[in-house]
Design goal:
There is one protein chain. The chain is of the alpha+beta class and 808 residues long. It is built from 35 helices and 14 strands. Strands 9, 10, 11, 12, 13 and 14 form a six-stranded mixed β-sheet that branches. A hairpin with a 4-residue loop joins strand 2 and strand 3. Helix 8 packs across helix 11. The longest helix has 19 residues. The protein is elongated, with a radius of gyration of 32 Å. The two termini are 53 Å apart.
Length: 808
């Protein structure tokens, strides 16, 4: 797409301009450094969003830019020209060496008071000049402030006015119908966020207040909020006084900043000139930027009654309109970008997709919004060079209302994609917003109004847009995203989405419902590959959550997994399910490893593939490789409790108990009730011979969930080696009685007898486990609790029967 825009632009303007290179960091826009041939001067050519061409009268836009170009001021980067190049709307401005204020804040954080005041002065001078000529900027933000060696210059002056004046229908609705609005949510005044039609120059003054606050505090007053929460905060939430964030800010300056941030326009300074006077009254008589020690708090007379564009009623209306503004906010922002902007770092090539909100009163439609989220995760995972946080971690944050920066810290990603889905009959509205986790600012936004049958195209459109915003390669290194419409049968697709929703519950009832829904989906469309893969997952989880005997589950997994791969050989989920089944049920070690490697090659972002491959490697005694794969899974799915606990389990297998305990405690921070992590802590204390701590930890895990046979076996082993033989024997009798009522894996009894020193019975149980293809054997044959059996010659027989070399 980027090369297409350049080619079209270059062909259309080659007689007037010579393009040199694209300036990085333009977000979804395309910004080029060029030479204007007639004057041999360097200029910036900025190509506006493609969808604007249908919403803007090009001739009117060109005329409006010519009017705006009459703004000639020392602190304004002037517009030079505008045009239409093969359907691409563009405008030009002089190229100025320097860095943006955004880059300055990111680089240094809090800025000196004197420098802050100097930049405020320059911005206010530019605003005063433009406002007197009837031009309101409407998009004042650090990205539009260019810092040269001695001055601050404001860019993009007049662009918002030109776009609004040239809307195809003669109103701002021409912009919003294209999914584009004017302004940036982080710097929108409350009346602007509420789409008040009477927004005036005082909205620019509010933005100056936000920028000043950010320069002094080093961060935005409402940093880390989602778009909706950010706009709501502007409309209703009091800003924390700047002196609390930075006590050294002079009181006179602090008051000016807070006055600029008043919610009602009538309570702010009424002009840029007035704000300049307030600023000047607080500096020394010589004009230096150091605030006078004796300066009184600047005051200004206010009219007895102030007319505000936000009455009490309008504030409530503003809250209701916040979500609408978030939807309409454009996928590309109107911000000049400096040529010196740094190249993206690796963290910027990572993303988490949060569960899309289900808009409306129909809670039964929750499956559809969750399904859209899952499909977006799958689509983005196909983008080369982009690491996508897994479903488990993303859905763990559902309903948490966390800001992008906090989410980025939790998931280790540089970007967050959030949005909403609204469905009404056959009509579908999807909104999506890409937010930078480093600063909480929006990178891209778009809304889509389609029919439900077009949901697949919407998902691919979003994936393409994210690829452009992050400048990542598209799947397969090509210039286009391969089509991945899973089915043409919408009814089958809805059954599939409902099944994914039910499967995510990880309950016996949810599993049964998911199995039924997937079976019906594949019956409606036998060519629906991803539904067959999902059905294989449901069958695979049957023995764990549904009480399904392994002997009955495995043939179903094989059949559905093979069907999925016959339809689509690239499905990582199907390769993973089959590989795990070959490991657990067939003990086909070579086939399992080949399957895991193929799954990872098809989708390196699929955390489960790395996780289960790590389990396989641990069972083969390849602990270093296992830990490496588990760490990769953990990076992809940092909030997964099972991956976190099994990372500590691999450390335990390596006889690294202190590291295992430390890792397990980090997992406990995610949930205090996850039983398996207590088991790993207990096993690690066994290695340290701290039997009291081991038994205490294991008992706590059993209190939360006593159904896992291996955990009960470990408790028996712990009591036995601690000298509590009678207690151990009592627990063995309970396990044997349980085996008479339900299936108990023989491997669990083998561990129990190993702890009691009854090697003969332990080996008998291991041989029985081999006969029954006990699913506990492949992963746990390397467990240290079996160390006392390894010197017995019978142990070699066990390994030969399992067709593996001594993994220890």
């Amino acid at each position: 797409m980027a090369s297409d825009i350049r080619d079209r632009l270059e062909a259309a303007i080659s007689g007037s301009y010579t393009l040199e290179r694209e300036i990085p960091g333009g977000g979804m826009s395309q910004v080029f450094l060029a030479t204007e041939n007639s004057l041999n001067r360097r200029v910036v050519v900025k190509v506006l969003p493609v969808e604007m061409s249908g919403a803007v009268n090009v001739d009117r836009f060109r005329r409006e830019v010519q009017l705006a170009a009459q703004l000639q001021h020392a602190h304004i980067v002037p517009l030079l020209s505008a045009g239409d190049a093969d359907g691409l709307l563009y405008y030009t401005m002089p190229f100025v060496e320097g860095e943006t204020l955004r880059q300055r804040i990111v680089r240094t954080g809090e800025m000196p008071v004197a420098e802050t005041v100097g930049i405020m002065r320059d911005i206010l001078k530019a605003l005063a000049y433009a406002h007197k000529r009837g031009i309101v900027h409407r998009d004042i933000k650090p990205e539009n402030i260019l810092l040269t060696e001695h001055d601050a210059l404001v860019a993009d002056f007049g662009v918002a006015k030109a776009l609004e004046a040239s809307a195809a229908d003669g109103s701002a609705s021409g912009m919003t119908s294209a999914g584009v609005t004017l302004g940036t949510p982080a710097y929108m005044a409350p009346e602007q966020a509420a789409a008040d039609p009477h927004v005036d120059h005082r909205a620019d003054l509010y933005a100056v207040g936000v920028i000043a606050y950010e320069m002094l505090a080093g961060s935005h007053p409402f940093a880390g909020r989602s778009v909706q929460a950010l706009l709501a905060a502007h409309a209703t939430e009091s800003v924390e006084p700047i002196v609390r964030r930075r006590p050294s800010v002079p009181p006179a300056l602090a008051l000016i900043v807070m006055q600029l941030l008043e919610k009602k326009p009538g309570d702010r300074p009424q002009s840029a000139d007035e704000t300049l006077r307030l600023l000047e009254s607080a500096v020394t008589p010589s004009g230096s930027l150091a605030f006078r020690a004796d300066a009184k708090t600047p005051t200004r007379e206010r009219p007895a009654t102030t007319q505000s564009t936000l009455s009490r009623v309008n504030v409530l209306v503003a809250i209701a309109l916040v979500a609408l503004v978030a939807i309409l906010y454009g996928r590309r922002q109107l911000g000049w970008q400096s040529a010196s902007r740094s190249a993206p770092v690796a963290r910027e090539q990572t993303i988490a997709v949060l569960p899309f909100a289900n808009i409306g009163n129909d809670s039964a439609a929750e499956y559809f919004s969750d399904g859209v989220t899952e499909e977006l995760i799958s689509s983005l995972a196909r983008l080369e060079s982009l690491r996508v946080s897994s479903r488990t971690s993303s859905f763990a944050l559902k309903g948490k209302n966390l800001g992008a920066q906090e989410i980025g810290a939790k998931l280790g990603v540089g970007n967050v994609l959030e949005g909403s889905v609204q469905r009404s009959g056959n009509q579908l509205r999807v909104t999506a917003r890409l937010v930078s986790a480093s600063d909480g600012y929006q990178v891209w936004s778009q809304s889509y109004n389609r029919e439900v049958k077009d949901v697949f195209a919407v998902q691919d459109d979003i994936a393409r847009a994210i690829a452009g915003a992050l400048r990542v390669k598209l799947g397969g290194g090509s210039d286009s995203l391969p089509s991945r419409r899973p089915t043409n049968n919408l009814a089958a697709y809805e059954l599939y989405l409902k099944g994914r929703f039910a499967l995510s519950q990880r309950t016996r009832e949810g599993l049964a419902e998911a199995t039924r829904l997937f079976e019906e989906a594949t019956a409606r469309d036998s060519m629906f590959a991803v539904a067959h893969a999902a059905l294989a997952d449901a069958y695979l989880l049957g023995p764990l959550y549904g009480g399904i005997p392994p002997a009955r589950a495995w043939p179903r997994v094989k059949a559905t997994g093979a069907k999925a791969l016959k339809l689509d050989s690239t499905l990582a989920e199907a390769h993973t399910a089959l590989a795990y089944g070959k490991m657990l049920f067939d003990w086909d070690w070579k086939g399992a490893e080949t399957g895991f490697r193929r799954a990872i090659a098809e989708n390196p972002s699929y955390a489960t593939a790395h996780h289960w491959y790590a389990d396989f490697l641990a069972g083969q005694g390849r602990f270093d490789e296992s830990l490496q794969e588990m760490r990769l899974a953990q990076q992809l799915d940092p909030l997964s409790q099972i991956i976190g606990s099994e990372t500590s389990w691999v450390l335990y297998l390596q006889h690294r108990p202190d590291e295992a305990i430390a890792e397990a405690n980090r997992t406990l921070a995610l949930s205090k009730t996850f039983s398996q992590v207590y088991l790993i802590i207990g096993l690690s204390y066994l290695l340290k011979r701290d039997y009291t701590a081991a038994i205490t930890a294991m008992q706590k895990g059993l209190d939360y969930d006593e159904s896992f046979p291996f955990a009960r076996a470990a408790m028996i082993y712990a009591h036995a080696v601690a000298g509590n033989r009678e207690k151990a024997l009592t627990l063995v009798d309970e396990m044997k009685a349980r085996a008479a009522r339900e299936y108990v894996p023989p491997f669990a009894l083998a561990v129990s007898y190993a702890g009691l020193g009854d090697n003969t019975t332990a080996f008998a149980m291991l041989n029985k486990a081999i006969d029954e293809k006990d699913v506990l054997m492949p992963e746990n044959i390397t467990d240290p609790m079996l160390d006392r059996l390894r010197t017995d010659p019978r142990y070699e027989t066990i390994l030969r029967r399992m067709r593996i070399e001594d993994p220890r």
